[in-house]
Amino acid sequence: MHAPVPQPGPETSGDKRRERLLYRLLYGRGADRGAKAKARVALAIAAFAAVYGVIATRLVMHAVAPDVHVARRSTAQDAVATARPDILDRNGEILATDVKAPSLFAEPRKLIDVDEAVELLTAVLPDLDAGELRERLASKRGFVWLKREIPTKQQQEIHHLGIPGLGFLDENKRVYPNGQEVSHVIGHVNIDNQGIAGIEKWLDASGLAALHTAGFATDRLQNPITLALDLRVQHALRDELLASQEKFKAKAAAGLVTDVRTGEVIALVSLPDYDPNNPRQAIDPTRINRITTGVYEMGSTYKALTLAMALDSGKVTLASTFDARVPLRYGKFSIGDYHAQNRVLSVPEIFTYSSNIGTARTALAIGVDGHKAFLKKMGQLDRLRTELPESAEPLVPKRWGELNTVTIAFGHGLSVAPLQAVMAVGALLNGGYLIPPTFLKRSEPEARALAKIVVKPETSEKMRYLMRLNAEKGTAAKADVKGYYIGGKTGTSEKVVGGRYSKTKVFNTFMAILPADQPRYLLTVMLDEPQATPETHGFATSGWNAAPTTGKVIARIAPLLGIEPRFDLPPADRLILTSAKELR
Amino acid sequence: MVSRAERGPFARWWWTVDKPMLAALAALMLGGIVLSLAASPLVAARLGLDPFHFVNRHLLFLVPALMVLIATSLLTPRHIRRLAFVVFLVSLALVVATFWFGAEVKGARRWIVVLGVNVQPSEFLKPAFVILIAWLFAESSRRPEMPANTMALGLLLLTVTLLVLQPDFGQSMLIALVWGALFFMAGMRLIWVLGLAGAATLGLAAAYFTVPHVAQRIKRFLDALEAFAQGGWFGRGPGEGTVKRILPDSHADFVFAVAAEEFGIVLCLILLALFAFIVMRALVHAFRAQDAFARFAIAGLGMLFGLQSAINMAVNLHLIPAKGMTLPFISYGGSSLISLAYGMGMLLAIARERPAAAMLPPVEAIVPAAAAVPAAAAQTAGAAGRPA
Question: Which ipTM was obtained for this model?
Answer without folding.
Answer: 0.77
